[in-house]
């Protein structure tokens, strides 16, 4: 029996969970944890709410509350969401627990004593009206790179560039609106740059998924800089050194330790040492937006401390909604609690697992959700199970019949059942959750075909022994489907096993004795009517693009829109969103800076035909000249395909 330490990224306690959180992190982690337990491994599966940082402090200030009150409100919502989705944590705690403070401060002190943390005076923005230094999220201004308004002190939403508060033009305090001044403040830095070579070696030799490895290597090739580890504010874990009142450990310097403090809390309850699980190998499940933190900063902190670094990091890509990026501020989102009010949790676990591999961005579509539930769960899986149980009750008095001598077709069907646990298990071992789930559905399809081919409704009259064999093997498949479904849809799997009067058993192929009582069963899955889906779609609030004024045909004629082909593409250093493209539009090549990097890699775009606005006034983005615009849809970034039009052809 192997030990394994499994974590989920700590949900931030400034809002409830939505479907994107579940898809990227919590459902795949739970599938893996449940599988490892069924395999007989000793699993410690932990998480906690991340409750410090400026967003919670800002929200609390705007609502006239204390930060702990805001964090507690959302901790309760998040915990309820995850419990109702059957996420099977062994420990779920909070980073505001006393034990977390103790562990985080001791960790900081040890790094300080070992010389990995040093002091340095830096310039920071200070608000005279509020009489305090302003952490990054307390400052707003104009981005110095793209000119975007409303850029925060840590990030520009317009161009994706990481910022420092002092870089902002025309900065203002987000609390009182006054203009801050610059003052000196002493802070503590972590010597991240010292771990450049060790991290490069570790990541290069690791078996981490390519989306994690490639992203981390991109940052490492650009070179690491030491990281500021403290903030001037009251909400957080205080710096445990004398003379540092009003300074806290930066949230990314202590939130990681929520994995450890949650495990330590579990140890206090159970008496089992959490360190044995960590040292056996930790697997982190996270979203793609925090790959940098988990693949670079966190392992560097562990190397400095002297701990074993994670065994693997599994990062789920983004989930959009009906072709558009999810936006909580615009209510373009499906909240977990709202979904569970109207649909069974296993429908959510199923759909978010099968609609795309975890390592690829995907979209939640209500129509596709309905199709998969109706076609795959109801018509395939549910239909096979219901027919098997109903025929057993009708023709064999609700008991599994004895099989007769097996034919070649029976043997082939039996062997497919026997092979299934190994096939599904191997896929789960490699974190291929979609393929694993679909292999179970394919097995149910095979069951339906076998059932139809054997025609037990006819065989019961003409050849009762053939009907007995058919129903014996179909019940055998049903029993094993119940076992195979357990990691993915534990509630539905439990219903199958209950109908068959079976207990939870270890992972693997399970025989089925004749005579076992099969209870009367209702259909496991119901089809979702069209009107239900239409109602859900109508709830989404679309913010239509407004047009301030109409344009004339002459205005449109002034636009030189042409068909081009991308001859070269490369990333623009420092931006997560922008690519530099050289586009052939027939009589010339033009350089275009396009905000496509969140969806397309440079390799994806080479020799791709695009539609280009070719007479746009040149401008500089990130210091790179851009002479035109690639036409694409809004937030989904789908490039407009010119089809068979020739290179250089003008669009009229």
TrEMBL record:
<dbReference type="InterPro" id="IPR015413">
    <property type="entry name" value="Methionyl/Leucyl_tRNA_Synth"/>
</dbReference>
<keyword id="KW-0436">Ligase</keyword>
<comment type="function">
    <text>Is required not only for elongation of protein synthesis but also for the initiation of all mRNA translation through initiator tRNA(fMet) aminoacylation.</text>
</comment>
<keyword id="KW-0694">RNA-binding</keyword>
<keyword id="KW-0030">Aminoacyl-tRNA synthetase</keyword>
<dbReference type="GO" id="GO:0046872">
    <property type="term" value="F:metal ion binding"/>
</dbReference>
<feature type="binding site">
    <location>
        <position position="156"/>
    </location>
    <ligand>
        <name>Zn(2+)</name>
    </ligand>
</feature>
<keyword id="KW-0067">ATP-binding</keyword>
<feature type="short sequence motif" description="'HIGH' region">
    <location>
        <begin position="11"/>
        <end position="21"/>
    </location>
</feature>
<dbReference type="InterPro" id="IPR012340">
    <property type="entry name" value="NA-bd_OB-fold"/>
</dbReference>
<comment type="subunit">
    <text>Homodimer.</text>
</comment>
<dbReference type="InterPro" id="IPR014758">
    <property type="entry name" value="Met-tRNA_synth"/>
</dbReference>
<dbReference type="GO" id="GO:0006431">
    <property type="term" value="P:methionyl-tRNA aminoacylation"/>
</dbReference>
<dbReference type="GO" id="GO:0005524">
    <property type="term" value="F:ATP binding"/>
</dbReference>
<comment type="similarity">
    <text>Belongs to the class-I aminoacyl-tRNA synthetase family. MetG type 1 subfamily.</text>
</comment>
<dbReference type="InterPro" id="IPR029038">
    <property type="entry name" value="MetRS_Zn"/>
</dbReference>
<dbReference type="GO" id="GO:0000049">
    <property type="term" value="F:tRNA binding"/>
</dbReference>
<keyword id="KW-0648">Protein biosynthesis</keyword>
<feature type="short sequence motif" description="'KMSKS' region">
    <location>
        <begin position="325"/>
        <end position="329"/>
    </location>
</feature>
<dbReference type="GO" id="GO:0017101">
    <property type="term" value="C:aminoacyl-tRNA synthetase multienzyme complex"/>
</dbReference>
<keyword id="KW-0547">Nucleotide-binding</keyword>
<dbReference type="InterPro" id="IPR009080">
    <property type="entry name" value="tRNAsynth_Ia_anticodon-bd"/>
</dbReference>
<feature type="binding site">
    <location>
        <position position="328"/>
    </location>
    <ligand>
        <name>ATP</name>
    </ligand>
</feature>
<feature type="binding site">
    <location>
        <position position="143"/>
    </location>
    <ligand>
        <name>Zn(2+)</name>
    </ligand>
</feature>
<dbReference type="InterPro" id="IPR004495">
    <property type="entry name" value="Met-tRNA-synth_bsu_C"/>
</dbReference>
<feature type="binding site">
    <location>
        <position position="146"/>
    </location>
    <ligand>
        <name>Zn(2+)</name>
    </ligand>
</feature>
<keyword id="KW-0862">Zinc</keyword>
<dbReference type="Pfam" id="PF09334">
    <property type="entry name" value="tRNA-synt_1g"/>
</dbReference>
<dbReference type="Pfam" id="PF01588">
    <property type="entry name" value="tRNA_bind"/>
</dbReference>
<keyword id="KW-0820">tRNA-binding</keyword>
<keyword id="KW-0963">Cytoplasm</keyword>
<protein>
    <recommendedName>
        <fullName>Methionine--tRNA ligase</fullName>
        <ecNumber>6.1.1.10</ecNumber>
    </recommendedName>
</protein>
<feature type="binding site">
    <location>
        <position position="159"/>
    </location>
    <ligand>
        <name>Zn(2+)</name>
    </ligand>
</feature>
<keyword id="KW-0479">Metal-binding</keyword>
<dbReference type="InterPro" id="IPR041872">
    <property type="entry name" value="Anticodon_Met"/>
</dbReference>
<dbReference type="Pfam" id="PF19303">
    <property type="entry name" value="Anticodon_3"/>
</dbReference>
<dbReference type="GO" id="GO:0005829">
    <property type="term" value="C:cytosol"/>
</dbReference>
<dbReference type="InterPro" id="IPR023458">
    <property type="entry name" value="Met-tRNA_ligase_1"/>
</dbReference>
<dbReference type="InterPro" id="IPR002547">
    <property type="entry name" value="tRNA-bd_dom"/>
</dbReference>
<dbReference type="GO" id="GO:0004825">
    <property type="term" value="F:methionine-tRNA ligase activity"/>
</dbReference>
<dbReference type="InterPro" id="IPR033911">
    <property type="entry name" value="MetRS_core"/>
</dbReference>
<feature type="domain" description="TRNA-binding">
    <location>
        <begin position="555"/>
        <end position="652"/>
    </location>
</feature>
